[in-house]
Design brief:
It is built from eight helices and five strands; from the N terminus they run βαβαββααααααβ. With 222 residues, it is α/β, with parallel strands linked by helices.
Length: 222
Amino acid sequence: MSSNLKPLVLHAHATGPNPVKVAVLLDALHLPYQVKVWAFGDGPNGVKGSAFTKINPNGRVPALEDPNTGVTSWESLACMNYLVRVYDKESKFGPGSSQQDQVDYDKWTAFLLSTLGPMMGQVNWYTHYNPTKNEDALRRYTEQTYRCFGVFEEHLKSSGGPYVLGKRYTAVDIHLFAWVAGYQYAKLSLSEYPHVEKWLKTVGDGEDVKAAREAIAKGEKV
């Protein structure tokens, strides 16, 4: 990647899976970037405050500013797709060339965004944040998350892996990894999903993942 590029700016929380996705892809593409870490809430340094909602009116991270193009993106899918379109011209991390390749890329990304991610998010909410216990809700979302783990397990088992789309490590792995890696925080287990557990270790051992986590941990607090 050109050394003349100005660093992109990734807006993140100190915790949470979605900014991690973008950071991992930035590192995988060897792009220069800096991380700004925002707080929760509507204070001057909060994601619901006026300073941040000028960047993302929805008041959520991640958001990504690219001074090289003048483009600002928010929502993790939009940020990831932008990076693949603009900086991954050989589609090393994007979809393959055939229609089936592109559908496979889209469907597993959608699986995370529409099903697995939201179910895990609700498990986290009812485990850690809901002001009153709601065992029925927690049970439902836990069951649905395990159902999703089962779907993913069978896919990895039948496809032969080691990655979601077979032999090639792509942005789909990054999307899924950021959420599945939080299974312990959600008080879930992967003991019945050995292929998912092996995949998680394979992706988690990558230098891009390690660098991204470090970048967010050392990010500049707003």
